[in-house]
Amino acid sequence: MRLLLALCLSMLIPGGAQAACGGDFGAFVEGLKAEARAAGLPPAQVDTFFRGVRQNARVLKADRSQGVFRKTFADFAKAVISQNRMNNGAANAKRHDRIFDRIQAEYGVSRGVLLAFWALETDYGQVQGDFNTRDALVTLAHDCRRPELFRPQVIAAMRLHARGDFDPAGTTGAWAGEIGQVQMLPLDILHNGIDGDGDGHVTLKTSSADALMSGAKMLADLGWRAGEPWMQEITVPETLDWSRTGLTTRLPTAEWARMGVRARDGALAPHLQGSVLLPMGRKGPAFMVYPNFEVLFEWNKSFVYVTTAAYFATRLEGAPPFRPGNPEAALGDAQMKALQRKLAARGHDVGAIDGILGARTRDAVQKEQGRLGLPPDAWPTRTLLDRL
Q: Which of 8, 146, 149, 336 has the fewest Cβ atoms within 10 Å of its own Cβ atom?
Protein backbone atom coordinates (compact mmCIF):
# COMPACT_ATOMS: atom_id res chain seq x y z
CA MET A 1 0.00 0.00 0.00
CA ARG A 2 1.20 3.45 -0.82
CA LEU A 3 0.58 6.82 0.76
CA LEU A 4 1.98 8.74 -2.22
CA LEU A 5 -0.80 10.74 -3.94
CA ALA A 6 -3.30 9.60 -1.30
CA LEU A 7 -3.97 13.08 0.00
CA CYS A 8 -3.98 14.80 -3.40
CA LEU A 9 -7.63 14.24 -4.19
CA SER A 10 -8.82 15.18 -0.70
CA MET A 11 -7.15 18.55 -1.22
CA LEU A 12 -9.77 19.22 -3.90
CA ILE A 13 -12.53 19.16 -1.30
CA PRO A 14 -13.47 22.75 -0.32
CA GLY A 15 -12.72 23.62 3.25
CA GLY A 16 -11.07 20.24 3.82
CA ALA A 17 -14.46 18.75 4.81
CA GLN A 18 -14.05 15.05 5.50
CA ALA A 19 -16.25 12.31 6.90
CA ALA A 20 -14.92 11.31 10.31
CA CYS A 21 -13.76 7.71 10.57
CA GLY A 22 -15.38 5.28 12.98
CA GLY A 23 -18.85 5.59 14.46
CA ASP A 24 -22.04 4.66 12.69
CA PHE A 25 -21.31 3.27 9.21
CA GLY A 26 -24.44 4.74 7.64
CA ALA A 27 -23.63 8.19 8.97
CA PHE A 28 -20.07 7.83 7.66
CA VAL A 29 -21.38 7.00 4.18
CA GLU A 30 -23.59 10.10 4.26
CA GLY A 31 -20.46 12.10 5.12
CA LEU A 32 -18.65 10.58 2.14
CA LYS A 33 -21.54 11.56 -0.10
CA ALA A 34 -21.25 15.13 1.13
CA GLU A 35 -17.50 15.05 0.39
CA ALA A 36 -18.11 13.78 -3.10
CA ARG A 37 -20.70 16.46 -3.86
CA ALA A 38 -18.32 19.10 -2.48
CA ALA A 39 -15.65 17.73 -4.84
CA GLY A 40 -17.98 18.47 -7.77
CA LEU A 41 -19.45 15.06 -8.49
CA PRO A 42 -23.13 15.09 -9.59
CA PRO A 43 -25.53 14.16 -6.75
CA ALA A 44 -27.34 11.51 -8.85
CA GLN A 45 -24.04 9.83 -9.68
CA VAL A 46 -23.01 9.93 -6.01
CA ASP A 47 -26.23 8.19 -5.00
CA THR A 48 -25.75 5.54 -7.69
CA PHE A 49 -22.19 4.85 -6.60
CA PHE A 50 -23.14 4.26 -2.94
CA ARG A 51 -26.35 2.33 -3.58
CA GLY A 52 -26.07 -0.98 -1.74
CA VAL A 53 -22.70 -0.24 -0.11
CA ARG A 54 -21.87 -2.54 2.78
CA GLN A 55 -19.26 -2.77 5.49
CA ASN A 56 -17.14 -5.88 4.90
CA ALA A 57 -15.83 -7.68 7.99
CA ARG A 58 -13.61 -9.93 5.84
CA VAL A 59 -11.69 -6.85 4.72
CA LEU A 60 -10.93 -5.83 8.29
CA LYS A 61 -9.87 -9.38 9.17
CA ALA A 62 -7.48 -9.48 6.20
CA ASP A 63 -6.05 -6.07 7.10
CA ARG A 64 -5.13 -7.31 10.57
CA SER A 65 -3.65 -10.67 9.64
CA GLN A 66 -0.82 -10.17 7.14
CA GLY A 67 1.27 -12.95 8.66
CA VAL A 68 2.97 -13.79 5.36
CA PHE A 69 5.34 -10.85 5.82
CA ARG A 70 6.72 -12.43 9.00
CA LYS A 71 8.63 -14.89 6.84
CA THR A 72 12.34 -14.43 6.21
CA PHE A 73 13.46 -13.35 2.76
CA ALA A 74 14.65 -16.88 1.94
CA ASP A 75 11.41 -18.50 3.11
CA PHE A 76 9.20 -15.95 1.35
CA ALA A 77 11.19 -16.23 -1.89
CA LYS A 78 10.99 -20.03 -1.76
CA ALA A 79 7.23 -19.84 -1.20
CA VAL A 80 6.40 -17.48 -4.07
CA ILE A 81 9.05 -18.12 -6.74
CA SER A 82 8.17 -21.52 -8.19
CA GLN A 83 9.43 -23.11 -11.38
CA ASN A 84 5.89 -22.81 -12.72
CA ARG A 85 5.96 -19.05 -12.18
CA MET A 86 9.37 -18.87 -13.83
CA ASN A 87 8.05 -20.79 -16.84
CA ASN A 88 4.90 -18.68 -17.05
CA GLY A 89 7.03 -15.55 -16.80
CA ALA A 90 9.05 -16.62 -19.83
CA ALA A 91 5.89 -17.51 -21.73
CA ASN A 92 4.23 -14.16 -20.92
CA ALA A 93 7.39 -12.26 -21.85
CA LYS A 94 7.24 -13.89 -25.27
CA ARG A 95 3.46 -13.55 -25.64
CA HIS A 96 3.51 -9.82 -24.85
CA ASP A 97 6.88 -9.04 -26.39
CA ARG A 98 5.57 -6.04 -28.36
CA ILE A 99 3.98 -4.53 -25.26
CA PHE A 100 7.20 -4.93 -23.27
CA ASP A 101 9.21 -3.39 -26.10
CA ARG A 102 6.82 -0.44 -26.13
CA ILE A 103 7.11 -0.10 -22.33
CA GLN A 104 10.92 -0.15 -22.55
CA ALA A 105 10.86 2.55 -25.22
CA GLU A 106 8.33 4.83 -23.52
CA TYR A 107 9.07 4.34 -19.80
CA GLY A 108 12.39 2.51 -19.57
CA VAL A 109 10.98 -0.09 -17.16
CA SER A 110 12.47 -3.57 -17.40
CA ARG A 111 10.15 -6.40 -18.36
CA GLY A 112 11.55 -8.49 -15.51
CA VAL A 113 10.28 -6.01 -12.93
CA LEU A 114 6.78 -5.88 -14.40
CA LEU A 115 6.65 -9.65 -14.82
CA ALA A 116 7.68 -10.14 -11.19
CA PHE A 117 4.97 -7.85 -9.82
CA TRP A 118 2.43 -9.30 -12.25
CA ALA A 119 3.26 -12.78 -10.93
CA LEU A 120 3.32 -11.92 -7.23
CA GLU A 121 0.23 -9.72 -7.31
CA THR A 122 -2.15 -11.94 -9.32
CA ASP A 123 -0.24 -14.93 -10.74
CA TYR A 124 -0.17 -13.23 -14.15
CA GLY A 125 -3.80 -12.14 -13.89
CA GLN A 126 -5.25 -15.48 -12.80
CA VAL A 127 -6.08 -14.56 -9.17
CA GLN A 128 -7.27 -10.96 -8.88
CA GLY A 129 -9.38 -11.14 -5.73
CA ASP A 130 -13.11 -11.45 -5.10
CA PHE A 131 -13.71 -8.53 -2.75
CA ASN A 132 -16.15 -5.87 -3.93
CA THR A 133 -13.75 -2.96 -4.43
CA ARG A 134 -16.14 -0.17 -3.49
CA ASP A 135 -17.16 -1.92 -0.27
CA ALA A 136 -13.52 -2.67 0.60
CA LEU A 137 -12.46 0.94 0.12
CA VAL A 138 -15.40 2.38 2.08
CA THR A 139 -14.84 -0.17 4.87
CA LEU A 140 -11.15 0.78 5.16
CA ALA A 141 -11.93 4.49 4.94
CA HIS A 142 -14.40 4.06 7.82
CA ASP A 143 -11.85 2.10 9.85
CA CYS A 144 -9.58 4.49 11.75
CA ARG A 145 -6.27 2.76 11.06
CA ARG A 146 -5.45 4.48 7.73
CA PRO A 147 -8.34 6.70 6.67
CA GLU A 148 -5.96 9.24 5.11
CA LEU A 149 -5.03 6.58 2.53
CA PHE A 150 -8.42 5.12 1.73
CA ARG A 151 -10.82 8.07 1.85
CA PRO A 152 -9.29 9.67 -1.28
CA GLN A 153 -9.41 6.26 -2.97
CA VAL A 154 -13.20 6.23 -2.60
CA ILE A 155 -13.47 9.58 -4.37
CA ALA A 156 -11.05 8.37 -7.05
CA ALA A 157 -13.17 5.27 -7.62
CA MET A 158 -16.16 7.57 -8.12
CA ARG A 159 -14.26 9.54 -10.74
CA LEU A 160 -13.37 6.31 -12.54
CA HIS A 161 -17.07 5.39 -12.39
CA ALA A 162 -17.96 8.74 -13.94
CA ARG A 163 -15.84 8.01 -16.99
CA GLY A 164 -17.12 4.45 -17.38
CA ASP A 165 -14.12 2.55 -16.02
CA PHE A 166 -15.54 1.36 -12.68
CA ASP A 167 -18.72 -0.53 -11.81
CA PRO A 168 -19.41 0.01 -8.09
CA ALA A 169 -21.60 -3.07 -7.82
CA GLY A 170 -19.50 -5.42 -9.94
CA THR A 171 -15.83 -4.41 -9.71
CA THR A 172 -13.88 -6.86 -7.58
CA GLY A 173 -10.25 -7.09 -6.52
CA ALA A 174 -7.97 -7.42 -3.49
CA TRP A 175 -9.13 -6.83 0.07
CA ALA A 176 -7.32 -3.47 0.19
CA GLY A 177 -9.05 -2.07 -2.88
CA GLU A 178 -6.43 -2.78 -5.54
CA ILE A 179 -7.82 -3.60 -8.96
CA GLY A 180 -6.65 -5.61 -11.92
CA GLN A 181 -3.76 -7.75 -13.05
CA VAL A 182 -1.07 -5.63 -11.39
CA GLN A 183 -3.30 -4.51 -8.51
CA MET A 184 -3.47 -0.71 -8.63
CA LEU A 185 -5.52 1.53 -6.36
CA PRO A 186 -8.14 3.81 -7.95
CA LEU A 187 -6.11 6.98 -7.40
CA ASP A 188 -3.13 5.40 -9.16
CA ILE A 189 -5.36 4.32 -12.03
CA LEU A 190 -6.77 7.83 -12.25
CA HIS A 191 -3.28 9.33 -12.52
CA ASN A 192 -1.42 6.59 -14.38
CA GLY A 193 -3.99 4.42 -16.15
CA ILE A 194 -3.08 3.78 -19.80
CA ASP A 195 -5.31 2.46 -22.57
CA GLY A 196 -2.69 0.05 -23.86
CA ASP A 197 -4.93 -1.87 -26.25
CA GLY A 198 -6.60 1.19 -27.79
CA ASP A 199 -10.21 0.31 -26.99
CA GLY A 200 -10.96 3.67 -25.37
CA HIS A 201 -11.00 2.38 -21.78
CA VAL A 202 -8.51 1.56 -19.05
CA THR A 203 -9.47 -1.99 -18.10
CA LEU A 204 -6.84 -3.45 -15.79
CA LYS A 205 -8.83 -6.60 -15.02
CA THR A 206 -9.17 -8.00 -18.53
CA SER A 207 -6.51 -6.22 -20.61
CA SER A 208 -2.90 -7.25 -20.03
CA ALA A 209 -1.77 -4.40 -22.26
CA ASP A 210 -3.64 -1.84 -20.15
CA ALA A 211 -2.35 -3.37 -16.90
CA LEU A 212 1.31 -3.58 -17.93
CA MET A 213 1.40 -0.13 -19.53
CA SER A 214 -0.30 1.41 -16.49
CA GLY A 215 2.08 -0.30 -14.08
CA ALA A 216 5.05 0.92 -16.09
CA LYS A 217 3.78 4.50 -16.16
CA MET A 218 3.23 4.42 -12.41
CA LEU A 219 6.80 3.25 -11.78
CA ALA A 220 8.12 5.92 -14.14
CA ASP A 221 6.12 8.61 -12.33
CA LEU A 222 7.47 7.33 -9.01
CA GLY A 223 11.01 7.96 -10.21
CA TRP A 224 12.14 4.83 -12.07
CA ARG A 225 15.38 5.60 -13.90
CA ALA A 226 15.41 4.20 -17.43
CA GLY A 227 18.20 1.84 -18.33
CA GLU A 228 19.51 1.42 -14.79
CA PRO A 229 19.63 -1.81 -12.75
CA TRP A 230 17.79 -2.31 -9.48
CA MET A 231 19.57 -5.26 -7.83
CA GLN A 232 22.39 -7.73 -8.32
CA GLU A 233 23.84 -10.45 -6.13
CA ILE A 234 27.26 -9.72 -4.63
CA THR A 235 29.94 -11.26 -2.45
CA VAL A 236 31.18 -9.35 0.58
CA PRO A 237 34.41 -9.74 2.57
CA GLU A 238 34.27 -10.83 6.21
CA THR A 239 36.12 -7.61 7.08
CA LEU A 240 33.40 -5.31 5.70
CA ASP A 241 32.24 -2.53 8.00
CA TRP A 242 28.76 -3.93 8.65
CA SER A 243 27.53 -0.61 10.01
CA ARG A 244 27.67 0.74 6.46
CA THR A 245 25.30 -1.90 5.12
CA GLY A 246 21.57 -1.34 4.73
CA LEU A 247 19.41 1.08 2.79
CA THR A 248 20.40 4.12 4.86
CA THR A 249 23.94 4.09 3.40
CA ARG A 250 24.38 4.72 -0.31
CA LEU A 251 27.92 4.89 -1.76
CA PRO A 252 29.46 4.90 -5.24
CA THR A 253 30.04 1.37 -6.49
CA ALA A 254 33.73 2.19 -6.94
CA GLU A 255 33.96 2.81 -3.19
CA TRP A 256 32.23 -0.47 -2.42
CA ALA A 257 34.68 -2.19 -4.74
CA ARG A 258 37.59 -0.69 -2.83
CA MET A 259 36.11 -2.30 0.31
CA GLY A 260 36.14 -5.72 -1.38
CA VAL A 261 32.53 -5.95 -2.54
CA ARG A 262 32.25 -7.84 -5.82
CA ALA A 263 29.42 -8.73 -8.18
CA ARG A 264 28.73 -12.46 -8.17
CA ASP A 265 28.56 -12.33 -11.98
CA GLY A 266 29.86 -9.53 -14.15
CA ALA A 267 30.65 -6.23 -12.53
CA LEU A 268 29.04 -3.67 -10.27
CA ALA A 269 27.15 -1.01 -12.20
CA PRO A 270 29.63 1.79 -12.98
CA HIS A 271 28.96 5.43 -12.13
CA LEU A 272 26.04 4.57 -9.85
CA GLN A 273 25.54 4.67 -6.12
CA GLY A 274 24.26 1.62 -4.33
CA SER A 275 23.57 0.06 -0.96
CA VAL A 276 24.72 -3.30 0.34
CA LEU A 277 21.61 -5.21 1.39
CA LEU A 278 21.91 -8.20 3.72
CA PRO A 279 18.30 -9.39 4.11
CA MET A 280 19.38 -12.19 6.50
CA GLY A 281 22.54 -10.72 7.94
CA ARG A 282 26.21 -10.94 7.08
CA LYS A 283 26.16 -14.76 6.82
CA GLY A 284 23.24 -14.90 4.38
CA PRO A 285 22.67 -13.76 0.79
CA ALA A 286 23.99 -10.33 -0.19
CA PHE A 287 22.83 -7.86 -2.84
CA MET A 288 23.82 -4.50 -4.23
CA VAL A 289 20.67 -2.42 -4.65
CA TYR A 290 20.45 0.75 -6.69
CA PRO A 291 18.12 3.80 -6.68
CA ASN A 292 15.50 1.93 -8.73
CA PHE A 293 15.17 -0.61 -5.92
CA GLU A 294 13.91 2.06 -3.55
CA VAL A 295 11.25 3.12 -6.07
CA LEU A 296 9.68 -0.32 -5.61
CA PHE A 297 8.79 0.54 -2.00
CA GLU A 298 6.21 2.94 -3.42
CA TRP A 299 4.44 -0.10 -4.89
CA ASN A 300 4.52 -2.10 -1.66
CA LYS A 301 5.91 -1.06 1.73
CA SER A 302 6.90 -4.56 2.89
CA PHE A 303 10.67 -5.07 3.02
CA VAL A 304 10.49 -8.81 2.41
CA TYR A 305 7.97 -8.41 -0.43
CA VAL A 306 9.98 -5.76 -2.27
CA THR A 307 13.28 -7.58 -1.81
CA THR A 308 11.71 -10.79 -3.12
CA ALA A 309 10.04 -9.05 -6.08
CA ALA A 310 13.32 -7.35 -7.03
CA TYR A 311 15.23 -10.63 -6.79
CA PHE A 312 12.50 -12.46 -8.76
CA ALA A 313 12.84 -9.81 -11.48
CA THR A 314 16.56 -10.56 -11.79
CA ARG A 315 15.79 -14.29 -12.07
CA LEU A 316 13.27 -13.63 -14.83
CA GLU A 317 16.03 -11.82 -16.69
CA GLY A 318 18.50 -14.67 -16.38
CA ALA A 319 20.21 -14.36 -12.98
CA PRO A 320 20.93 -17.61 -11.10
CA PRO A 321 19.36 -18.49 -7.74
CA PHE A 322 20.97 -16.65 -4.85
CA ARG A 323 23.58 -18.30 -2.69
CA PRO A 324 21.84 -18.89 0.65
CA GLY A 325 24.95 -18.85 2.82
CA ASN A 326 24.55 -19.94 6.43
CA PRO A 327 22.62 -17.22 8.28
CA GLU A 328 21.95 -17.39 11.99
CA ALA A 329 18.53 -18.73 12.92
CA ALA A 330 15.65 -16.29 12.60
CA LEU A 331 13.69 -15.26 15.68
CA GLY A 332 10.22 -16.69 16.09
CA ASP A 333 7.12 -14.50 16.13
CA ALA A 334 6.98 -14.17 19.92
CA GLN A 335 10.72 -13.44 20.06
CA MET A 336 10.45 -10.78 17.35
CA LYS A 337 7.63 -9.06 19.21
CA ALA A 338 9.66 -9.20 22.43
CA LEU A 339 12.60 -7.68 20.59
CA GLN A 340 10.43 -4.91 19.14
CA ARG A 341 9.11 -4.08 22.60
CA LYS A 342 12.65 -3.86 23.95
CA LEU A 343 13.75 -1.67 21.04
CA ALA A 344 10.74 0.60 21.54
CA ALA A 345 11.54 0.85 25.25
CA ARG A 346 14.99 2.13 24.29
CA GLY A 347 13.41 4.92 22.24
CA HIS A 348 13.48 3.38 18.76
CA ASP A 349 10.54 3.85 16.40
CA VAL A 350 9.78 0.33 15.20
CA GLY A 351 6.17 1.03 14.28
CA ALA A 352 3.62 -1.58 15.37
CA ILE A 353 4.70 -4.47 17.59
CA ASP A 354 3.77 -6.99 14.92
CA GLY A 355 6.63 -9.48 14.70
CA ILE A 356 7.52 -8.25 11.20
CA LEU A 357 11.14 -7.36 10.44
CA GLY A 358 10.45 -4.18 8.51
CA ALA A 359 12.77 -1.32 7.63
CA ARG A 360 12.33 0.55 10.93
CA THR A 361 12.93 -2.55 13.04
CA ARG A 362 16.01 -3.40 10.98
CA ASP A 363 17.39 0.11 11.49
CA ALA A 364 16.84 -0.12 15.25
CA VAL A 365 18.46 -3.56 15.38
CA GLN A 366 21.53 -2.27 13.57
CA LYS A 367 21.91 0.65 15.96
CA GLU A 368 21.60 -1.55 19.04
CA GLN A 369 24.03 -4.10 17.61
CA GLY A 370 26.59 -1.34 17.19
CA ARG A 371 25.98 -0.03 20.70
CA LEU A 372 26.45 -3.51 22.19
CA GLY A 373 29.56 -4.35 20.19
CA LEU A 374 27.83 -6.95 18.01
CA PRO A 375 28.30 -7.06 14.22
CA PRO A 376 25.79 -4.40 13.08
CA ASP A 377 24.29 -6.22 10.10
CA ALA A 378 20.61 -5.51 10.98
CA TRP A 379 19.77 -9.21 11.39
CA PRO A 380 18.11 -9.85 14.78
CA THR A 381 19.48 -12.84 16.68
CA ARG A 382 18.83 -14.55 19.99
CA THR A 383 22.14 -13.09 21.22
CA LEU A 384 20.87 -9.55 20.59
CA LEU A 385 17.54 -10.32 22.26
CA ASP A 386 19.32 -11.70 25.33
CA ARG A 387 21.75 -8.77 25.52
CA LEU A 388 18.90 -6.29 25.43
A: 8
